[in-house]
Amino acid sequence: MTSRTCISERLRLPVISAVVVSVILLSGCSGGGDPQAGPTGTAAASPGQSASGSASATPSATPTPKPTPVYKPADAKGRAQNVPVPVKPALADKNTKEGLEAFTKYWYALLNYGFETGDLSSWAKLTSTSCDFCNLLKNSVAVGYKEGRWQAGGRLSAPSVEARFKPGTASQQVVVQVVQEKTHFYKADTSVGRSPAPGSNTASVVVAKYADGHWGVSDLHLIQ
Question: Which of 66, 95, 106, 112 has the highest local Cβ count within 10 Å?
Fold first, then answer.
């Protein structure tokens, strides 16, 4: 390399360095802002937001109301469905004649619920285990729903309830007219379980006791 060449190279280095610095400065001016800036220098819109910076409104979905379960009584094809659970009236916990009668109607409504569904748990909580006739009713329902069986018909009602209320007496008596429709019995395979039980219209005496703020049945007798 000649001395003329070395001098030429020395002259070119400052020129190249100046060009590189200019490029860096220009890059810093044009691209040193928000890395999300678009070609026009405006920040890119975030998801769910328009270019003007306002969030786009998302329409709220209207919840679809659930259909009300429809009660279906039992028949030859299957069990009852969506049987309404009896609601205990507030009056049924009153230690009065009216309260005792309201309780007795509720007690029979729970018994009817057991005939329709096989579930006598709520009824049993209000019934003494020493009540022999009550135990016969409980066992009858248990057999009727054993191993997938069920009953159809057999609706139970108490159209007439008359309490012989005596204030201050430990046990109270209620005379009740009990009406039950004809009952059909089916096995799990939908075949007939046994002969139907005929309907009935009888009178009974419910013996009830009041304790711990509520009534309970201690005995039940049929009036012959």
Answer: 106
- pTM of the full structure: 0.71
What does DSSP assign to residue 187?
-
SS3 track for 95-146: CCHHHHHHHHHHHHHHHHHHHHHCCCHHHHHCECCCCHHHHHHHHHHHHHCH
Asked if residue 49 is part of any domain, the answer here is no
101-147 pLDDT, tens digit each: 999 999 999 999 999 999 999 999 999 999 999 999 999 999 999 99
Query: How many whole angstroms separate alpha carbon 171 and alpha carbon 178?
Result: 21
Domains of the chain: total: 1
* Cα-trace Rg, the chain: 43
CB-based contacts of 206, cutoff 8 Å, min separation 6: 104, 107, 173, 174, 176, 217, 219, 220
In the chain the first and final C-alpha atoms are separated, in Å, by 140
Contact between residue 209 and residue 219 where contact means Cβ atoms under 8 Å apart:
no
Domain hosting 114: range is 90-223
